[in-house]
């Protein structure tokens, strides 16, 4: 056991005046299984890069461990998997690696296949197993779930629970609950470390916000009451001062000593009221700095002319003559939100592309309603680059509505001026979702829309879908999201 200490950390990118971190201090134990959470763009991956020594910064990071990073950059994916493993963990024995991948339900034969022939999920599992075999290294795990199916997420979560000594960036609530024992959260105003799972952290966070909201309401009332009392005290004081040179109704002169005493008493009361008011204002200013506001999103799905939109009968997709999935049949009617379930490589994305009209080889019958308007969120974001204004023009989007949606999804205005290639993975995905929300469609097809997207935005999208009931066919492996949104599941 040792500590990683962060002292007065301040960092901003050279191209930005806004600091990512400003005078931040905290410490973490290297034995912890630490979940690292926060909204997109708050600096989670940046912090990893600071630990890895990639950027210069002000302050101190004190650690007695060597850091390693997942995903490991594989330069030549055409090499055999065992060659890549030997490069990552040269001191590990073969039997040790085979033991590790067996925990992750990966067959030993993958060792003798080119790495590029492994599925994304297999690649994730192999790299994690290899990195954990490096003794004395502290692993920084950056969003491992993005290429894992639902079963794979459960396997990796169980695997990580057996380990100790890592920091894990993830936005999958169930995944975090399955494997972490501490939470490091980047909030709006500070960074906090807390013992427990994601769910226990969230419960404490919500309770804290609820307590602060009630305290804020009480202080607002106190401040208003004290302001009224201060005005009355000031009026009384002024009246007493004005009477110093006056006379009584009977014509006799007032006792100036008495008047002076009364004036001093009024002044003291006014100062006490002002002091109490300033104290209440100061206390109020410390509240609700971390509250995460998520404004409701809007959607305008089109009503289709008939109840049935799509019908698939015994459909099986194939590549180079090899059938990928067993034949499936399902119907999509208005209001359905169909989630396609299945392991990586089972043909889920291919089914979506088939519905979109791509020339995918297949058997069986697909019937689409005539005149069907579809809005699509694709899985890959690597093509996104250039100015936001060009993206808006190329996709013929209503600019005010589009930017309003992005603002509601926690985009700062400064992001609108950046090249899209500089956006975080979550911000790029939000761009595609915002585009889809601007499109009036009969059917919304979303392929893993939540990759990289923060928890608050996931819940925001859940609320949107349940409020407007669009007809959807989607692929998503976030179990909590599926349970809240899907009305029908089709397993490949």
TrEMBL record:
<keyword id="KW-0547">Nucleotide-binding</keyword>
<protein>
    <submittedName>
        <fullName>Lsa family ABC-F type ribosomal protection protein</fullName>
    </submittedName>
</protein>
<feature type="region of interest" description="Disordered">
    <location>
        <begin position="212"/>
        <end position="256"/>
    </location>
</feature>
<dbReference type="InterPro" id="IPR003593">
    <property type="entry name" value="AAA+_ATPase"/>
</dbReference>
<feature type="compositionally biased region" description="Basic and acidic residues">
    <location>
        <begin position="212"/>
        <end position="224"/>
    </location>
</feature>
<feature type="coiled-coil region">
    <location>
        <begin position="263"/>
        <end position="290"/>
    </location>
</feature>
<dbReference type="InterPro" id="IPR003439">
    <property type="entry name" value="ABC_transporter-like_ATP-bd"/>
</dbReference>
<dbReference type="Pfam" id="PF00005">
    <property type="entry name" value="ABC_tran"/>
</dbReference>
<feature type="domain" description="ABC transporter">
    <location>
        <begin position="4"/>
        <end position="213"/>
    </location>
</feature>
<feature type="compositionally biased region" description="Polar residues">
    <location>
        <begin position="226"/>
        <end position="252"/>
    </location>
</feature>
<dbReference type="InterPro" id="IPR027417">
    <property type="entry name" value="P-loop_NTPase"/>
</dbReference>
<dbReference type="InterPro" id="IPR051309">
    <property type="entry name" value="ABCF_ATPase"/>
</dbReference>
<keyword id="KW-0067">ATP-binding</keyword>
<feature type="domain" description="ABC transporter">
    <location>
        <begin position="310"/>
        <end position="492"/>
    </location>
</feature>
<keyword id="KW-0175">Coiled coil</keyword>
<dbReference type="InterPro" id="IPR017871">
    <property type="entry name" value="ABC_transporter-like_CS"/>
</dbReference>
């Amino acid at each position: 056991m040792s500590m990683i200490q962060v002292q007065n950390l301040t960092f901003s990118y050279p191209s930005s005046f806004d600091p990512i971190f400003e005078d931040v201090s905290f410490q973490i134990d290297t034995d912890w299984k630490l979940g690292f959470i926060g909204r997109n763009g708050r600096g989670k991956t940046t912090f990893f890069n600071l630990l890895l020594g990639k950027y210069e910064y002000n302050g101190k990071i004190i650690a007695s461990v060597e850091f390693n990073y997942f995903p490991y950059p594989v330069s030549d994916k055409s090499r055999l998997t065992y060659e890549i493993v030997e490069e990552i963990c040269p001191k590990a024995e073969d039997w040790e690696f085979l033991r590790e991948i067996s925990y992750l339900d990966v067959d030993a034969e993958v060792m003798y296949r080119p790495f590029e022939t492994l599925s994304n999920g297999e690649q994730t599992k192999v790299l994690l197993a290899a990195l954990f075999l490096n003794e004395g290294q502290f692993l920084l795990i950056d969003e491992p779930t993005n290429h894992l199916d639902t079963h794979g997420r459960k396997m990796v979560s169980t695997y990580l629970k057996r380990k100790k000594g890592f920091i894990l960036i993830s936005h999958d609530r169930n995944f975090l609950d399955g494997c972490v024992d501490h939470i490091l959260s980047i909030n709006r105003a500070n960074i906090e470390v807390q013992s427990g799972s994601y769910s226990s952290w969230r419960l404490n966070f919500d309770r804290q916000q609820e307590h602060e909201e009630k305290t804020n309401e009480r202080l607002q009332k106190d401040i208003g009451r004290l302001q009224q009392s201060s005005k009355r005290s000031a009026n009384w004081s002024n009246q007493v001062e004005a009477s110093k040179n006056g006379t009584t109704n009977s014509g006799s002169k007032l006792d100036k000593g008495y008047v002076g005493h009364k004036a001093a008493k009024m002044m003291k009361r006014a100062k006490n009221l002002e002091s109490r008011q300033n104290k209440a204002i100061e206390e109020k200013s410390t509240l609700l700095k971390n509250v995460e506001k998520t404004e409701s999103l809007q959607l305008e799905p089109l009503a289709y002319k008939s109840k049935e939109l799509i019908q698939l009968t015994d459909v099986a997709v194939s590549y180079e003559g090899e059938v990928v999935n067993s034949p499936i049949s399902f119907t999509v009617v208005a209001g359905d939100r169909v989630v396609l379930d299945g392991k990586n490589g089972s043909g889920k994305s291919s089914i979506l592309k088939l519905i979109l009209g791509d020339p995918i080889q297949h058997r069986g019958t697909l019937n689409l309603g005539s005149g069907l308007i579809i809005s699509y969120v694709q899985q890959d974001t690597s093509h996104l680059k250039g100015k936001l204004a060009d993206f808006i023009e190329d996709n013929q989007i209503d600019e005010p509505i589009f930017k309003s949606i992005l603002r509601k999804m926690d985009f700062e205005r400064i992001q609108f001026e950046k090249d899209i290639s500089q956006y975080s993975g979550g911000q790029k995905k939000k761009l595609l979702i915002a585009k889809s929300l601007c499109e009036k469609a009969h059917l919304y097809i979303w392929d893993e829309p939540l990759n990289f997207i923060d928890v608050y935005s996931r819940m925001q999208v859940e609320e949107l879908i349940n409020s407007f009931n669009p007809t959807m066919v989607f692929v998503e492996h976030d179990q909590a999201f599926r349970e809240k949104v899907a009305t029908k599941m089709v397993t490949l």
